[in-house]
Specification:
- There is one protein chain.
- The protein is mainly alpha-helical.
- Helices cover 55% and strands 5% of the residues.
- It folds into 2 domains: 60 residues, Arc Repressor Mutant, subunit A, CATH 1.10.10.10; 31 residues, no CATH class.
- It has a two-stranded antiparallel ribbon with strand order 1-2.
Length: 129
């Protein structure tokens, strides 16, 4: 029985895309060197083949020494991953995500105010009190 397609990106797919977004086109060996706890070269090749089928990466068409590049934009991938997180773990409630970010101290109240100000167009400046 064929394995069901993983929605969104797997951890390894995200790591590979992060390498390609940061460094541009890379060979299998270059990608492998940048990965945490690098898998075997054959595993990286297989992952890239799957990612190519999913249209996440593209190669230059060479038979040997292929260069791979990201075929998806970083911002689009982040938006999709965030949407999946909010939908699957937070029942669609983005406010709960923000509350958990604050609770886990991954975002401070000051950072949140600054982001809210930037989103509203005032650059994060506070109104006179």
């Amino acid at each position: 029985m064929a394995r069901q397609r993983t929605p969104g990106l797997t951890t390894r797919e995200a790591q590979i895309l992060h390498v390609l977004w940061g460094q541009g086109p890379c060979t299998v060996a270059q990608i492998r060197r940048e990965l945490p706890e690098p898998p075997t070269t054959n595993t990286v090749r297989k992952l890239l083949s799957i990612m190519n089928q999913r249209q996440l990466v593209a190669d230059d068409g060479r038979a040997y020494g292929k260069l791979y590049r990201a075929a998806v934009e970083m911002d689009d991938s982040r938006s999709q991953a965030l949407q999946q997180l909010v939908t699957t773990l937070y029942d669609g409630c983005a406010g709960d995500v923000v509350a958990d970010l604050l609770r886990a101290r991954l975002v401070t109240s000051a950072q949140l105010r600054k982001m809210a100000g930037a989103a509203s167009g005032d650059g994060g400046r506070q109104a006179p009190g």
